[in-house]
Amino acid sequence: MNDLLLTIIEVLIKGMVLVTFILLGAAVQVYLERKISAFIQGRIGPNRAGPFGLLQPFADVIKLFMKEDIFPKLAFKRFHQFAPVISMGIAIVVYAVIPFADPVKITMADGTVKEIVMGVAPNLNIGILFILAMTSVGVYGLTLAGWSSNSKYSLLGGLRSAAQMISYELSMGLAIIGVLMICGSFSLSDIVTHQKGWFWHWNIFAQPLAFIIFMVSSFAEMNRTPFDLPEAEPELVGGYNTEYSGMKFGMFFLAEYSNMATGSILLILLFFGGWHLPFPQEWLGLQTGSIALGIVQLAVFLFKLLAVIFFIIWVRWTVPRFRYDQLMHMGWRMLLPLALLNIAVTGIILFII
Predict the structure, then answer these.
(1) CB contact burial 14-37 (16+ within 10 A = b; e otherwise)
(2) Please, which residues have CB within 8 angstroms of residue 261's CB and are 6 or more apart in sequence?
(3) Is residue 53 part of a domain?
(4) What mean pLDDT comes out for the span 281-291?
(5) Would you give the DSSP letter of residue 12?
């Protein structure tokens, strides 16, 4: 009974820390988005709220809290209110199976050694399937938002989002199969462990085509430019969130940046060695399972995460938006055949080896 109680307390503490990390991470991404876009466009960016504008994301949240929650007269109220909850909930739930470092071993007072995993449930042996399943459910939030608003702009945005996610999630899942064939496991921890050692063990070198397909599909899944058709301002005003204001709009905003971090984390775990350094960690002289090694691995993980997020933001402010026919053409007639080809080539190579 005591072990069960301790386990529940540990999971609750990890959950609260994880939610705090997600919220602060979204604030950091908003700040980076503003600063990097300002740098690319030759502007200064936020520089009023706090030193160097660091408090600007928090000022944005306070503004959203103070905004009036406008509700369209002809909208379906229950679904209209529930849609942002679905998007935000799914965006948080997927983090439950994401590992952030190797387990840390701590010696207790009675001499027993307790292993603390870096995540809520990172050793789930179907972790990658869980994430794909949850991201599939996430599209219901956007579709419900577009339908329940009773607005043609919102409805078109929701339909675009559903079609886009269905089209590119297929290519994304097939791209991951090549990695799973090499690593022989659905567990994200096992996939990262398989890439341990020198940087040429990373899956980006073994599966370069899968990496390109997964990266492009991730942009489409995240609704990021050049695949932000569900929110295309010139033709749809704001897409599925046109009729939202206040914190309901803020929840969609937060879910979008949480999904951007999720896509970046998956790229790191699947193709860039996860939390491993580009050289054997034994060179650091740190013992496996030590707290010091755990801190180093977390720092490496965060550095890679910031680098990928910088790239995603850079693409947004550099590449123009695709037309919708180009979006569908790329998903069904380019990425899907290439993903199937990658699976066939990987299988042949593994059979020969």
Answers:
(1) beeebeeebbebbbbbbbbbbbbe
(2) 22, 25, 26, 29, 305, 309
(3) no
(4) 77
(5) H
